[in-house]
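Hi R.,

Here's the input for the glutamic acid complex you asked about:
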Amino acid sequence: MRTPVPDYLTELIEGCTADADGELASYIPELANVDPAQLAVAVCTPDGTVYAAGDADAQFTIQSISKPFAYALALRDRGLDVVLDHVGVEPSGDAFNEMSVESATGRPRNPMINIGAITTHSLVGNPAIPYEARAAVLIDGLSRFAGRTLDVDEAVLESEYATRYRNVALASMARSNDFIHVEPDEAVWGYTKQCSALVTARDLAVMATTLAGGGKNPLTGEQVVPQWVCRQVLSVMMSCGMYDAAGDWLSQVGIPAKSGVSGGILGALPGQAGIGTFSPRLDRFGNSVRGVQLFERLSGDMGLHIMELPAPSIDAIGARDESEDGRPLIAVQGPVIFSTAELALRRFAEIPDDERDVVIDLRMVTTMNSVGKRMLAEGVRRLKLDGREVELLLPRADFSLT
Ligand code: GLU
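And here is the predicted structure with glutamic acid in place:
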């Protein structure tokens, strides 16, 4: 048998091919020269399988889709407090290239608009390194997310840097308010280089899965950034990632995402999948017309909306309630998170007082987050404090509750 997923993606692409709505971005001269008919979708699973259809190996500059990754690298290098001191996390409600700063402090509103992104760029790496070295740290970081060495499109870099004045104005404002500590021209050059990294829809899918999977690249196995960084980045993508269409996107598609003016969209569904699309014609918000369509259909067809919750976890406790030698047995199964651990703890509490020996069987547990583990460990501790003998059945030798 052949898995039907590639056929589904091919159908998805065919369903959008005829739509020629939208305009190419033209404010960066070099971007007006691309073939507007290009169309691609790629989906990467948590274990690194990439399904793709259309022009999934066509290269384009990453543009604003680099912003969440620069934010991730700044968080990695400087920590949450320092980054929050320099860039906020509130949606701006303004266009991406507006002077969107908090009125009281002048702090850029979020890292997904240009003023916040240029500030974020300047926070990556050791503060003392020269600007060319900082740009190299950025390209290296983007490459680690993608799992391959990314090139830079020098023609796009030159073309955008030659018309950089609006971004320099934004950087100058951030510099004068003391949120950027380097020369505006240098910060903008590095940021523009970051935006000129060449990616494919396939790369976007892998980069998204790295974010969606807690920072570990599914192809190389490298832990690119710590897990807490991904939570922060995905949250900001959810509220600020789709230019001014973030509310529409949240309700229609419901996948943390970031789009860019060259026509790419990256979507990262925590724990499930990374998605990349590419189609250069943009709508009035600056999002790819057919990219939005692809995401809407994928999300609807595959039930990928983040608010479309899985069935309640009432099956977290197995049916067997007695061991072979007659001791009370509680078998926990599936993923152990707050809701399933709470149910298990309630079952622990129901064990009759006169039962001294109990068996807790965790052999059918598939995953356990730190909260689930802490809760179960506390339950076992309390059972023992009550004077019971607890036998723990664990799935593997390296698995423990401590
Ligand atoms: N490099 C572009 C700029 O700064 C990125 C914009 C975008 O993709 O939204 O204008």
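One thing worth noting: The pocket of glutamic acid is lined by residues 63-64, 96-97, 114, 160, 167, 195, 260-261 (CB under 6 Å).

Cheers,
M.
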